Amino acid sequence: MACTLDPLAKKIFKGVLLAELVGIFGAYFLFKKMNASQDFRQTMSKKFPFILKVYYKSTEHSGMCRIREQDPEKRLNSKN
């Protein structure tokens, strides 16, 4: 006896899978843009500070230290 899914279950499964893939790729491209642009990190600190905290923690966890300390220093230097 073969186990088959009804069409509604297949659509729900495909929708959930698609949502997860979009979320993974979105997080990757957001991290990549934040990693490359200090101006984008400044924008994120104004609009979504909790996302910036996650970015800083993930970079510190991976061994890329001092980004959190360098951002305010660069902002102060650019204003002067």
TrEMBL record:
Superkingdom of this protein's organism: Eukaryota
Where, by residue number, does the polypeptide cross the bilayer?
Answer: 12-31
Alphabetic keyword roster: Membrane, Transmembrane, Transmembrane helix
- InterPro entries per the UniProt record, alphabetical: CEBPZOS (IPR037764)
Q: What is this protein called?
A: Protein CEBPZOS-like
The organism's taxonomy opens as:
Eukaryota, Metazoa, Chordata, Craniata, Vertebrata
